[in-house]
Each structure stands twice: as C-alpha cells, then as structure tokens.
Write a sequence for this structure.
C-alpha cells in the first residue's frame, strides 16, 4: 500500500496540476497534501511494529 502511494506521489508530481479538455476538467491534490498522507501512513506502519517508547519502573533489589 505504501509503495502504491509512493508511486502515486511520483506520478502526480510528474503530471500537470490541472488539465482541461472540452467540458472535462481534472485537478490533482497538492504535493504538500500527498507528502502529509505519506508521512501519516508511514507513521501508522511504524507504530504497528512496536518500536515506540516503552516506560518501565526500575526498583533496585533490597530497597524497601
């Protein structure tokens, strides 16, 4: 899925922002929005791997 989005970003960046022929008009999303979507999907994928911050409490033995 991320590969598809990456390829779409590349294709859209290479293509025109707006195209018009006869009565048909096409406009793509801004590159900024595409980059934000890619970052969002990448962060979701990274969160699935469990590489986040882990909080633990360390108690030395014999200290009560």
């Amino acid at each position: 899925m991320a590969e598809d989005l990456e390829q779409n970003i590349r294709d859209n960046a290479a293509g025109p922002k707006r195209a018009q022929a006869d009565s048909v008009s096409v406009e793509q999303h801004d590159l900024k929005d595409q980059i934000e979507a890619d970052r969002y999907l990448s962060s979701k994928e990274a969160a699935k791997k469990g590489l986040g911050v882990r909080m633990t409490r360390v108690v030395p033995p014999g200290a009560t």
Remarks:
- The mean pLDDT is 76.
- The helical segments are 2-14, 31-48.
- The radius of gyration is 22 Å.
- Residues 33 and 39 are 10 Å apart (CA to CA).
